Amino acid sequence: MLEQSLPAIVVDGVSKTFALPHERVHTLKEKALHPFRRTTHETLHALRDVSFAVAPGEFFGIVGRNGSGKSTLLKCLAGIYATDAGRIYVQGRMSTFIELGVGFNPDLPARENVMINATMLGLTTREAKRRFDRIIDFAELHDFVDLKLKNYSSGMLVRLAFSVMIQVDAEILLIDEVLAVGDAAFQQKCFEEFQRIRRSGATVLLVTHDMGATQRFCDRAMLLEHGRQAEIGEPERVGMRYMQLNFDAEARAEEEAEAAGAEAGSVESGAEAPTEQQELRVGDRRAEILESWFEDAHGKRATVIVSGAPCTFRTRVRFNERLEDPLFGVNLHNSDDVHVWGANNLYEAKAGIFEAGEEIVFEVAFCNVLAPDRYFASPAVANAGAGMAWHDQRSRLAALMVTGTQQTGGLVDLPFQFTIGRSGAAAAEAEQRVP
Predict the structure, then answer these.
(1) Which pairs with CB-CB distance under 8 Å and at least 24 residues apart come from 408-417?
(2) Which CATH class is domain 284-403?
(3) Against a cut of 0.85, is the pTM above it?
(4) Radius of gyration (Cα) for the chain, nearest Å?
(5) What is the CATH number of domain 57-84+93-244?
(6) pLDDT digits over 265-286, tens only?
(7) Range(s) within the chain of domains with CATH label 2.70.50.60
C-alpha cells in the first residue's frame, strides 16, 4: 500500500551543462603542429534546477521550444546523461523512445533488430519471439522484415521502433516527439495507442510540440524555457503559455530582421525594393490613418490574444479636409494571405461630418473566434458615395497572433455544443443493455 502512494518519478533540482568547444582538433597532425594551443569552451546550461514529481499512472507532458532542454531531461531520466546536480528517482521498469533508431543496427534486417531491441528493453528471448508478429503488424512492415534497416525510410524506422516500445510491459514510458515522424495514418494509430496506454495505468512522459495532443492526453504538463521550468500544471494553461512564448519570439525575430533590413537599406543608395510583407498605401489623403492596434478584453494593447477571448480593433484617423459620412472599415488576412473577415459601417447609421484637423478613433469589437494563426489588419477610410474611392487605405498595418491549443483545420474556431441522439428503438435497446 505504501509503494502505491510513492511517485513513479521524482526529479529534484536537476541541472545539466555541456562544454561546447569553440575549435576542435580532429587529427594528430593538427595536434602536433599546435601542441600548446588551448581550446576554449562555451558553457551551455541545458537544464537549470528542474524539479517535479509524476504520480503512478499519470500522463505527463513536457513542452518547450527547440533548445529548451526537453530531450536532455528525458535522456537524464533514461540514464543516458549523468546529471551535474540534483537527483532523479524512478520506481518501476522503464521503456524509452527518445531518438529515432537508437539501439538498432542498420546492417541487420528488421527481424534481428526487433529481437535485439526488445531484449534490451527487458523482454526475454522467448517473449520477444512471441510478440514479434504483433510488433510487425502494428508497424505494417510485413513485406520488409528481411530488408536491412539502412534501406528503411525514416517513417518505416519510427514505426518499427515505436512498435517495439509499446510491446514491452513497462510501467513507465518515456516518449520523445513520436508524432513528429510518420504519416497521418500512423499518427492516428499512435493516438489510439496512447488511449490504450492511459487505460492500462502506465506512467507516461511525453515530449511534444503538439499542443492539441498535450491537452488531449496529458493529465498535467510542464513548460521548459532555456532549461528552466516556466510553467507546470493544467495542460491548457501550459499550452497557452507555450504558444505565447513561441509567438513572442517569432515577433521579436521579425522585428530584428526588419530593423536590420532598414539599416541596410539606409546605407545603400537607390530606390527601395518592395517586399512581400511591405505595407501598401493608397488614397487621396483627404483623411489619414495614423495608427491601428488590437486590444484585449481589459482594454490593453495586445499583439497576442487567445482564441475565444473578446477583442477590439482600433484605428486613429486625422481629417485633412472636411468630410461628410465617410466609410470606415478593416479587412483581416491570415498568414497565407487569405481574406478571413471584414467589418465596416456601410449599413450602420451615418458617420456624420468631420472638420479638417479633427482626429477620431473608430473601433470594431468582436469575439475572437479566429483559429490560431498570425493575422494582418488593413484599415481604410473611403468615400462611400463615390464608388468606394479611398481617402486612405493601409494594408497590413497591424498584426495579431491568435493562440490556442485546439486545431480546427479551418479559418475560425466557432464555439459549439455536440450531442448524439438515438432513435426511439435504439434508445430503448441501449437502456436494456445498461445493468
Answers:
(1) 408/371, 410/371, 411/334, 411/338, 411/340, 411/370, 411/371, 412/340, 412/369, 412/370, 412/371, 413/307, 413/308, 413/369, 413/370, 413/371, 413/372, 414/369, 415/308, 415/369
(2) mainly beta
(3) no
(4) 29
(5) 3.40.50.300
(6) 544 444 343 334 456 788 889 9
(7) 284-403
